Amino acid sequence: MSSTPPPAAGAAGTGPAAGDADAPVLAIEDLTVTIGTRRGPARAVAAVDWSVRAGQTLALVGESGSGKSMTVLAATGLAPRAARVTGRVRLLGEELTTLPEPRRRQLRGRHVGFVFQDPMTSLNPVLTVGRQVSEACEEHLGMTRRQARDRAVELLDLVGIPSPGRRVEEYPHQFSGGMRQRVVIAMALACEPALLIADEPTTALDVTTQAQIVELVADLRRRLGTAVVWITHDLGVVAGVADTVAVMYGGRIVERGDVDAVFDAPAHPYTRALLAARPDPQRAGGDLPAIAGAPPSPLDLPPGCAFWPRCPVRGDARCEHELPPLVPVAPGHEVRTFYPGGEDA
Protein backbone atom coordinates (compact mmCIF):
# COMPACT_ATOMS: atom_id res chain seq x y z
CA MET A 1 0.00 0.00 0.00
CA SER A 2 1.38 3.42 -0.89
CA SER A 3 1.94 6.31 1.45
CA THR A 4 -0.78 8.87 1.97
CA PRO A 5 -1.47 10.69 -1.30
CA PRO A 6 -0.99 14.43 -1.47
CA PRO A 7 -3.96 16.63 -0.57
CA ALA A 8 -6.57 16.79 -3.29
CA ALA A 9 -6.99 20.01 -5.17
CA GLY A 10 -8.99 22.53 -3.16
CA ALA A 11 -8.65 20.51 0.05
CA ALA A 12 -6.64 23.03 2.04
CA GLY A 13 -8.28 24.56 5.08
CA THR A 14 -11.25 22.21 5.15
CA GLY A 15 -10.82 20.44 8.49
CA PRO A 16 -10.67 21.50 12.11
CA ALA A 17 -6.89 21.87 11.84
CA ALA A 18 -7.56 24.95 9.73
CA GLY A 19 -9.09 26.62 12.80
CA ASP A 20 -9.52 25.18 16.27
CA ALA A 21 -7.74 21.83 16.37
CA ASP A 22 -9.85 20.75 19.38
CA ALA A 23 -13.19 21.62 17.79
CA PRO A 24 -15.42 18.65 16.91
CA VAL A 25 -15.73 17.75 13.25
CA LEU A 26 -19.39 16.88 13.88
CA ALA A 27 -21.33 17.91 16.97
CA ILE A 28 -24.97 16.97 17.66
CA GLU A 29 -27.02 18.60 20.41
CA ASP A 30 -30.52 17.61 21.53
CA LEU A 31 -31.26 15.94 18.18
CA THR A 32 -34.82 14.61 17.96
CA VAL A 33 -36.41 12.96 14.94
CA THR A 34 -40.15 12.36 14.69
CA ILE A 35 -41.57 10.66 11.61
CA GLY A 36 -45.17 11.08 10.54
CA THR A 37 -46.89 7.80 9.74
CA ARG A 38 -50.47 6.69 9.06
CA ARG A 39 -50.61 5.40 12.61
CA GLY A 40 -49.36 8.65 14.10
CA PRO A 41 -46.00 10.19 14.94
CA ALA A 42 -43.07 7.83 15.51
CA ARG A 43 -40.22 9.17 17.63
CA ALA A 44 -37.16 7.56 16.09
CA VAL A 45 -34.53 9.63 17.92
CA ALA A 46 -34.91 11.57 21.17
CA ALA A 47 -32.61 14.27 22.58
CA VAL A 48 -29.33 12.76 21.37
CA ASP A 49 -26.02 14.52 22.05
CA TRP A 50 -22.53 13.50 20.93
CA SER A 51 -19.51 14.78 19.06
CA VAL A 52 -16.52 13.35 17.20
CA ARG A 53 -13.15 14.97 16.61
CA ALA A 54 -10.49 14.63 13.94
CA GLY A 55 -8.66 11.30 14.18
CA GLN A 56 -11.29 9.88 16.57
CA THR A 57 -13.73 7.02 16.03
CA LEU A 58 -17.14 7.09 17.69
CA ALA A 59 -19.12 3.85 17.60
CA LEU A 60 -22.92 3.99 17.70
CA VAL A 61 -24.09 0.62 19.00
CA GLY A 62 -27.49 -1.02 19.34
CA GLU A 63 -29.99 -3.42 17.83
CA SER A 64 -31.84 -2.66 14.61
CA GLY A 65 -34.39 0.07 15.22
CA SER A 66 -32.48 1.67 18.09
CA GLY A 67 -32.02 4.94 16.17
CA LYS A 68 -28.34 4.68 15.19
CA SER A 69 -28.64 5.19 11.44
CA MET A 70 -31.52 7.66 11.72
CA THR A 71 -29.42 9.85 14.01
CA VAL A 72 -26.68 10.15 11.41
CA LEU A 73 -29.06 10.52 8.47
CA ALA A 74 -30.92 13.33 10.25
CA ALA A 75 -27.68 15.01 11.26
CA THR A 76 -26.43 15.09 7.67
CA GLY A 77 -29.73 16.19 6.15
CA LEU A 78 -30.68 12.80 4.71
CA ALA A 79 -33.66 11.94 6.90
CA PRO A 80 -36.89 10.86 5.13
CA ARG A 81 -39.17 13.63 3.88
CA ALA A 82 -41.76 12.71 6.50
CA ALA A 83 -39.27 13.31 9.30
CA ARG A 84 -39.33 16.37 11.54
CA VAL A 85 -35.83 17.09 12.83
CA THR A 86 -35.08 19.42 15.74
CA GLY A 87 -31.89 20.20 17.61
CA ARG A 88 -28.49 21.51 16.56
CA VAL A 89 -25.94 19.95 14.22
CA ARG A 90 -22.56 21.55 13.48
CA LEU A 91 -20.23 20.26 10.77
CA LEU A 92 -16.79 21.87 10.94
CA GLY A 93 -18.37 24.61 13.01
CA GLU A 94 -21.14 25.40 10.52
CA GLU A 95 -24.75 24.95 11.67
CA LEU A 96 -26.40 22.51 9.24
CA THR A 97 -30.00 22.65 10.43
CA THR A 98 -30.53 26.26 9.29
CA LEU A 99 -28.66 26.08 5.99
CA PRO A 100 -30.41 26.14 2.61
CA GLU A 101 -30.42 22.67 1.07
CA PRO A 102 -27.98 23.54 -1.79
CA ARG A 103 -25.33 24.68 0.71
CA ARG A 104 -25.98 21.70 2.96
CA ARG A 105 -25.63 19.37 -0.04
CA GLN A 106 -22.36 21.05 -0.97
CA LEU A 107 -20.95 20.65 2.54
CA ARG A 108 -22.07 17.03 2.76
CA GLY A 109 -20.61 16.13 -0.62
CA ARG A 110 -17.31 17.83 0.08
CA HIS A 111 -16.69 16.97 3.73
CA VAL A 112 -18.61 13.76 4.53
CA GLY A 113 -17.91 10.31 3.09
CA PHE A 114 -20.41 7.45 3.44
CA VAL A 115 -19.75 3.69 3.50
CA PHE A 116 -22.87 1.52 3.70
CA GLN A 117 -23.51 -2.13 4.46
CA ASP A 118 -23.89 -3.55 0.95
CA PRO A 119 -21.33 -2.18 -1.53
CA MET A 120 -23.48 -3.14 -4.50
CA THR A 121 -26.13 -0.62 -3.44
CA SER A 122 -23.44 2.09 -3.64
CA LEU A 123 -21.92 1.05 -6.98
CA ASN A 124 -23.35 1.48 -10.47
CA PRO A 125 -22.92 -1.83 -12.34
CA VAL A 126 -22.56 -0.15 -15.75
CA LEU A 127 -19.79 2.32 -14.84
CA THR A 128 -16.15 1.45 -14.24
CA VAL A 129 -15.00 1.71 -10.64
CA GLY A 130 -12.52 4.38 -11.67
CA ARG A 131 -15.28 6.54 -13.09
CA GLN A 132 -17.35 6.13 -9.95
CA VAL A 133 -14.43 7.05 -7.68
CA SER A 134 -13.47 10.04 -9.84
CA GLU A 135 -16.93 11.65 -10.18
CA ALA A 136 -16.81 13.35 -6.79
CA CYS A 137 -13.36 14.78 -7.57
CA GLU A 138 -14.73 16.48 -10.66
CA GLU A 139 -17.92 17.64 -8.94
CA HIS A 140 -16.52 18.95 -5.66
CA LEU A 141 -12.81 19.59 -6.31
CA GLY A 142 -12.98 20.97 -9.85
CA MET A 143 -10.55 18.42 -11.27
CA THR A 144 -10.34 17.66 -14.96
CA ARG A 145 -11.37 14.17 -16.03
CA ARG A 146 -7.72 13.16 -16.41
CA GLN A 147 -6.77 14.53 -12.99
CA ALA A 148 -9.74 12.77 -11.43
CA ARG A 149 -8.78 9.45 -13.04
CA ASP A 150 -5.24 9.76 -11.67
CA ARG A 151 -6.74 10.51 -8.28
CA ALA A 152 -8.91 7.39 -8.56
CA VAL A 153 -5.79 5.28 -9.17
CA GLU A 154 -4.16 6.81 -6.06
CA LEU A 155 -7.24 6.06 -3.98
CA LEU A 156 -7.58 2.46 -5.14
CA ASP A 157 -3.93 1.99 -4.22
CA LEU A 158 -4.52 3.66 -0.85
CA VAL A 159 -7.29 1.20 0.06
CA GLY A 160 -5.17 -1.79 -0.90
CA ILE A 161 -6.50 -2.81 -4.32
CA PRO A 162 -3.69 -4.48 -6.32
CA SER A 163 -2.78 -3.17 -9.80
CA PRO A 164 -4.92 -0.04 -9.42
CA GLY A 165 -3.84 1.38 -12.78
CA ARG A 166 -5.46 -1.62 -14.48
CA ARG A 167 -8.38 -2.24 -12.19
CA VAL A 168 -9.55 1.36 -12.41
CA GLU A 169 -11.01 0.40 -15.80
CA GLU A 170 -12.90 -2.64 -14.51
CA TYR A 171 -16.54 -2.95 -13.42
CA PRO A 172 -17.99 -3.82 -9.99
CA HIS A 173 -18.90 -7.38 -10.98
CA GLN A 174 -15.19 -8.06 -11.56
CA PHE A 175 -14.41 -7.45 -7.88
CA SER A 176 -15.01 -9.65 -4.84
CA GLY A 177 -17.32 -8.45 -2.05
CA GLY A 178 -14.40 -7.29 0.08
CA MET A 179 -12.76 -5.50 -2.85
CA ARG A 180 -16.04 -3.81 -3.73
CA GLN A 181 -16.25 -2.49 -0.18
CA ARG A 182 -12.71 -1.14 -0.59
CA VAL A 183 -13.87 0.64 -3.74
CA VAL A 184 -16.74 2.20 -1.78
CA ILE A 185 -14.25 3.37 0.86
CA ALA A 186 -12.12 4.88 -1.92
CA MET A 187 -15.22 6.71 -3.19
CA ALA A 188 -15.94 7.97 0.32
CA LEU A 189 -12.38 9.29 0.65
CA ALA A 190 -12.22 10.87 -2.81
CA CYS A 191 -12.54 14.45 -1.55
CA GLU A 192 -10.49 13.83 1.61
CA PRO A 193 -13.56 14.34 3.82
CA ALA A 194 -13.23 15.49 7.39
CA LEU A 195 -15.80 12.86 8.43
CA LEU A 196 -16.30 9.24 7.38
CA ILE A 197 -19.62 7.59 8.27
CA ALA A 198 -19.51 3.79 8.14
CA ASP A 199 -22.97 2.23 8.53
CA GLU A 200 -22.64 -1.51 9.22
CA PRO A 201 -19.84 -1.67 6.59
CA THR A 202 -18.75 -5.24 7.38
CA THR A 203 -22.07 -7.03 7.98
CA ALA A 204 -22.32 -8.56 4.48
CA LEU A 205 -18.70 -9.79 4.49
CA ASP A 206 -17.03 -12.96 5.75
CA VAL A 207 -15.12 -12.82 9.03
CA THR A 208 -11.66 -12.56 7.47
CA THR A 209 -12.72 -9.75 5.14
CA GLN A 210 -14.50 -7.99 8.02
CA ALA A 211 -11.22 -7.88 9.93
CA GLN A 212 -9.41 -6.50 6.89
CA ILE A 213 -11.96 -3.71 6.40
CA VAL A 214 -11.87 -2.79 10.10
CA GLU A 215 -8.07 -2.57 10.00
CA LEU A 216 -8.17 -0.60 6.75
CA VAL A 217 -10.51 2.05 8.18
CA ALA A 218 -8.47 2.26 11.39
CA ASP A 219 -5.27 2.68 9.38
CA LEU A 220 -6.77 5.36 7.14
CA ARG A 221 -8.07 7.23 10.18
CA ARG A 222 -4.60 7.24 11.72
CA ARG A 223 -2.86 8.37 8.55
CA LEU A 224 -5.40 10.87 7.25
CA GLY A 225 -6.74 12.19 10.57
CA THR A 226 -10.33 11.59 9.49
CA ALA A 227 -13.09 11.55 12.09
CA VAL A 228 -15.10 8.31 11.89
CA VAL A 229 -18.62 7.44 13.01
CA TRP A 230 -18.98 3.65 12.95
CA ILE A 231 -22.55 2.35 13.20
CA THR A 232 -22.89 -1.28 14.24
CA HIS A 233 -24.69 -3.86 16.35
CA ASP A 234 -21.47 -5.89 16.69
CA LEU A 235 -19.61 -5.08 19.90
CA GLY A 236 -16.77 -7.34 18.78
CA VAL A 237 -16.02 -4.89 15.97
CA VAL A 238 -16.31 -1.92 18.33
CA ALA A 239 -13.49 -3.17 20.53
CA GLY A 240 -11.08 -3.06 17.61
CA VAL A 241 -12.10 0.20 15.96
CA ALA A 242 -13.56 2.74 18.42
CA ASP A 243 -12.20 5.30 20.85
CA THR A 244 -15.59 6.15 22.32
CA VAL A 245 -18.91 4.28 22.36
CA ALA A 246 -22.52 5.47 22.48
CA VAL A 247 -25.03 2.68 23.11
CA MET A 248 -28.54 3.46 21.82
CA TYR A 249 -31.89 1.93 22.70
CA GLY A 250 -35.37 3.18 21.88
CA GLY A 251 -33.95 6.23 20.12
CA ARG A 252 -31.94 7.43 23.12
CA ILE A 253 -28.36 7.08 24.28
CA VAL A 254 -28.40 4.76 27.30
CA GLU A 255 -24.63 4.60 27.86
CA ARG A 256 -21.56 6.33 26.49
CA GLY A 257 -17.91 6.62 27.33
CA ASP A 258 -14.41 5.57 26.39
CA VAL A 259 -14.38 2.14 24.81
CA ASP A 260 -12.26 0.62 27.59
CA ALA A 261 -14.51 2.03 30.33
CA VAL A 262 -17.69 0.73 28.70
CA PHE A 263 -16.24 -2.72 28.01
CA ASP A 264 -14.53 -3.11 31.38
CA ALA A 265 -17.40 -1.77 33.50
CA PRO A 266 -20.67 -1.68 31.51
CA ALA A 267 -23.18 0.18 33.65
CA HIS A 268 -26.47 -0.24 31.77
CA PRO A 269 -28.32 -3.59 31.80
CA TYR A 270 -28.73 -3.34 28.02
CA THR A 271 -25.00 -2.87 27.45
CA ARG A 272 -24.25 -5.82 29.72
CA ALA A 273 -26.77 -7.94 27.81
CA LEU A 274 -25.20 -7.01 24.46
CA LEU A 275 -21.74 -7.91 25.74
CA ALA A 276 -23.01 -11.20 27.15
CA ALA A 277 -24.50 -12.10 23.76
CA ARG A 278 -21.15 -11.92 21.97
CA PRO A 279 -19.70 -15.23 20.76
CA ASP A 280 -16.98 -16.34 23.15
CA PRO A 281 -14.40 -18.93 22.02
CA GLN A 282 -13.80 -19.78 25.69
CA ARG A 283 -17.44 -20.76 26.17
CA ALA A 284 -17.89 -24.41 25.31
CA GLY A 285 -21.10 -25.36 23.49
CA GLY A 286 -24.62 -24.31 24.35
CA ASP A 287 -26.74 -21.48 23.03
CA LEU A 288 -25.63 -17.87 23.11
CA PRO A 289 -27.35 -15.76 25.76
CA ALA A 290 -30.15 -13.73 24.17
CA ILE A 291 -32.07 -10.65 25.23
CA ALA A 292 -35.69 -11.65 25.78
CA GLY A 293 -38.40 -9.79 23.91
CA ALA A 294 -38.00 -7.22 21.14
CA PRO A 295 -37.05 -3.54 20.91
CA PRO A 296 -39.95 -1.13 21.36
CA SER A 297 -41.80 0.39 18.42
CA PRO A 298 -41.11 4.13 17.98
CA LEU A 299 -44.89 4.44 17.68
CA ASP A 300 -45.46 3.07 21.18
CA LEU A 301 -42.55 3.92 23.45
CA PRO A 302 -43.03 3.40 27.19
CA PRO A 303 -43.12 6.56 29.33
CA GLY A 304 -40.17 5.50 31.46
CA CYS A 305 -37.09 3.49 30.59
CA ALA A 306 -37.60 1.97 27.13
CA PHE A 307 -35.62 -1.12 28.15
CA TRP A 308 -37.77 -1.79 31.22
CA PRO A 309 -39.98 -4.52 29.62
CA ARG A 310 -36.86 -6.58 28.74
CA CYS A 311 -34.62 -5.63 31.63
CA PRO A 312 -33.27 -8.41 33.90
CA VAL A 313 -33.05 -5.90 36.77
CA ARG A 314 -36.60 -4.54 36.29
CA GLY A 315 -36.58 -1.97 39.01
CA ASP A 316 -39.40 -0.26 40.86
CA ALA A 317 -42.18 1.92 39.47
CA ARG A 318 -39.69 4.64 38.53
CA CYS A 319 -38.29 2.43 35.76
CA GLU A 320 -41.71 1.90 34.22
CA HIS A 321 -43.00 5.47 34.53
CA GLU A 322 -40.02 7.81 34.87
CA LEU A 323 -37.26 8.40 32.30
CA PRO A 324 -33.84 7.96 33.95
CA PRO A 325 -31.43 10.85 33.40
CA LEU A 326 -28.02 10.36 31.80
CA VAL A 327 -25.67 10.51 34.79
CA PRO A 328 -21.91 10.06 35.23
CA VAL A 329 -20.65 6.83 36.80
CA ALA A 330 -16.96 7.60 36.23
CA PRO A 331 -14.97 10.32 34.45
CA GLY A 332 -16.02 10.30 30.80
CA HIS A 333 -18.57 7.50 31.37
CA GLU A 334 -22.33 8.16 31.55
CA VAL A 335 -25.37 5.92 31.82
CA ARG A 336 -29.17 6.29 31.71
CA THR A 337 -30.49 3.97 34.42
CA PHE A 338 -31.58 4.07 38.05
CA TYR A 339 -29.43 0.97 38.75
CA PRO A 340 -26.00 1.65 37.18
CA GLY A 341 -24.24 -1.11 39.07
CA GLY A 342 -26.86 -3.71 38.27
CA GLU A 343 -28.10 -3.57 41.85
CA ASP A 344 -31.28 -5.34 42.70
CA ALA A 345 -34.36 -3.12 42.70
UniProtKB/TrEMBL annotation:
<protein>
    <submittedName>
        <fullName>ABC transporter ATP-binding protein</fullName>
    </submittedName>
</protein>
<dbReference type="InterPro" id="IPR017871">
    <property type="entry name" value="ABC_transporter-like_CS"/>
</dbReference>
<dbReference type="GO" id="GO:0005524">
    <property type="term" value="F:ATP binding"/>
</dbReference>
<dbReference type="Pfam" id="PF00005">
    <property type="entry name" value="ABC_tran"/>
</dbReference>
<keyword id="KW-0067">ATP-binding</keyword>
<dbReference type="InterPro" id="IPR027417">
    <property type="entry name" value="P-loop_NTPase"/>
</dbReference>
<dbReference type="InterPro" id="IPR003439">
    <property type="entry name" value="ABC_transporter-like_ATP-bd"/>
</dbReference>
<dbReference type="InterPro" id="IPR003593">
    <property type="entry name" value="AAA+_ATPase"/>
</dbReference>
<feature type="compositionally biased region" description="Low complexity">
    <location>
        <begin position="9"/>
        <end position="21"/>
    </location>
</feature>
<keyword id="KW-0472">Membrane</keyword>
<feature type="domain" description="ABC transporter">
    <location>
        <begin position="26"/>
        <end position="275"/>
    </location>
</feature>
<keyword id="KW-0547">Nucleotide-binding</keyword>
<dbReference type="InterPro" id="IPR013563">
    <property type="entry name" value="Oligopep_ABC_C"/>
</dbReference>
<feature type="region of interest" description="Disordered">
    <location>
        <begin position="1"/>
        <end position="21"/>
    </location>
</feature>
<dbReference type="InterPro" id="IPR050388">
    <property type="entry name" value="ABC_Ni/Peptide_Import"/>
</dbReference>
<keyword id="KW-0813">Transport</keyword>
<dbReference type="Pfam" id="PF08352">
    <property type="entry name" value="oligo_HPY"/>
</dbReference>
<keyword id="KW-1003">Cell membrane</keyword>
<comment type="similarity">
    <text>Belongs to the ABC transporter superfamily.</text>
</comment>
